[in-house]
Specification:
Elements: E1 3-8, E2 12-18, H1 25-31, E3 35-38, H2 41-49, E4 54-57, H3 64-74, E5 78-81, H4 84-94, H5 102-116, H6 131-162, H7 182-187, H8 194-201, H9 210-236, H10 243-252, H11 256-266, E6 281-285, E7 292-296, H12 297-305, E8 309-315, E9 318-324, H13 327-341, H14 351-365, H15 370-395
Parallel strand pairs: 1-4, 4-5
Antiparallel strand pairs: 1-2, 2-3, 6-7, 8-9
Length: 396
């Protein structure tokens, strides 16, 4: 096997080609012939000329890794991704404590494959199209949301003295509507709005400036991109393979974007199950109780993927709780609890909505901090979601 470890930077890559794992990686580091290529046509050609069977790299964003990984995949090379935390621990295991550079990372990545290639769960899941495309789109939506927020905040601050009567108006698109928000479209000169024209005539403000209209135009451009992404997402998740998942999602009251985020993270569910397609459960003696204890490994992996798996960071007198997994999923679920489960009138009119509603009402009655309550309810919802998906896919 020709195994290529790649440490990817913004415009270049450091490579280490191994035919076998060296017996002394720490010493081999000083003798190894490392390769360095730029992100251009000659660099890609030189990389492929190494003729690797396997390439191993970190998921360095969706942009840097995408270039090199795609060209390798087109050439028939199997591309494996190693998580940042896993590589950091493995590099320490190899003894690279004082040599944290691109070459050391490339060598560690190549060695990692030799030690772990028989257990695919040691690598980050490789997603096929359309999952990869859905993933790209939901990340793009998150980016657009981050871009719009400061523009809208600046616009509202300017309107506070230019047209204060509309400074706090909530101008948003309704769900999957393809209509631009009326206030921003009117300010941008793209729509007529008689009510705003009349309000402006009697306004105590000092008049709308060109800067505000330019900001409104920027928001409209970003909103159009969101509309196009929503349209493509709707088309992608309408695929037949997602129908059983979406039926379950509908019972939870998940919207299009939450459904897309969840599908991009958990499809297919078989990745979390054992070889027989059943949830993996181990019974071990508890370390503290000494009694037989169930360890629901599949559920644990599922919860971690969605960013709601609790964990411990204990050492000596320090004992901290922490939550790992996807920040994007965690935020989406937290917002879903806030908008669909917490308000009584918005809860799904079924057993799931009733059960989760009772849980959040009971949690809030204890006086716990509301952020903690929403987090706990999101975790309960994910446990229930896993159970519902198992049942739905079993009967499908």
């Amino acid at each position: 096997m020709r195994v290529l470890g790649l440490d990817i930077s913004k415009s270049s890559v450091a490579c280490c080609l191994l035919l076998e794992k060296p017996t002394e990686p720490r010493q081999f580091y000083f003798d190894c012939n490392f390769y360095h290529f730029d992100a251009n046509a000659s660099g890609i050609s030189a990389l492929l000329a190494l003729k690797p069977n396997v390439a191993v790299c970190e998921p360095t964003g969706i942009n840097y890794q995408r270039l090199w990984g795609t060209h390798l995949a087109w050439a028939g090379v199997m591309v494996y991704l190693v998580g940042h935390a896993e590589l950091k621990a493995y590099r320490k295991h190899l003894g690279f404590l004082d040599n944290k550079d691109d070459d050391a990372d490339a060598l560690a990545l190549a060695c990692y494959w030799f030690d772990n290639h028989q257990s695919l769960r040691r690598f980050i899941q490789l997603r096929d199209y359309p999952i990869t495309r859905i993933r790209q789109l939901v990340l793009r939506l998150a980016h657009l949301n981050r871009v719009q927020s400061p523009i809208i905040n600046r616009l509202r601050q300017d309107l506070a003295w230019q047209f204060p009567e509309v400074a706090l108006v909530k101008s948003q698109r309704h769900s999957l509507s393809e209509n631009l928000p009326l206030l921003w479209a009117w300010l941008a000169g793209e729509k007529e709005a008689l009510k705003y024209e009349q309000m402006l005539e009697s306004s105590v403000g000092l008049g709308i400036t060109d800067a505000v209209r330019l900001h409104a135009q920027r928001i409209c451009h970003l909103q159009r991109e969101e509309i196009a992404i929503d349209r493509e997402l709707m088309h992608l998740i309408d695929a037949p393979e997602f129908i059983p998942y979406r039926k379950v999602f509908a019972r939870f009251g998940f919207g299009l974007r939450v459904q897309s985020i969840l599908i991009s993270q958990i499809y297919p569910l078989s990745n979390y199950l054992d070889k027989s397609g059943k949830p993996e459960v181990l019974i071990r003696k508890g370390r503290k109780s000494g009694k037989p204890t169930k360890h629901r490994l599949s559920l644990r992996r599922f919860m971690k993927a969605l960013g709601v798996a609790p964990g411990k960071d204990a050492s000596g007198d320090r004992d901290l709780d922490r939550v790992g997994g996807s920040d994007l999923c965690r935020l989406a679920l937290w917002q879903w609890v806030f908008t669909r489960i917490e308000p009584r009138r918005s809860r799904p009119a079924n057993e799931i909505g009733k059960r989760l509603g009772e849980i959040i009402d009971a949690e809030k009655s204890t006086g716990r901090p509301i952020k903690l309550v929403r987090t706990r309810v999101a975790a309960r919802a994910v446990r229930l979601l896993f159970k519902e998906l198992i049942q739905a896919l079993k009967s499908d």
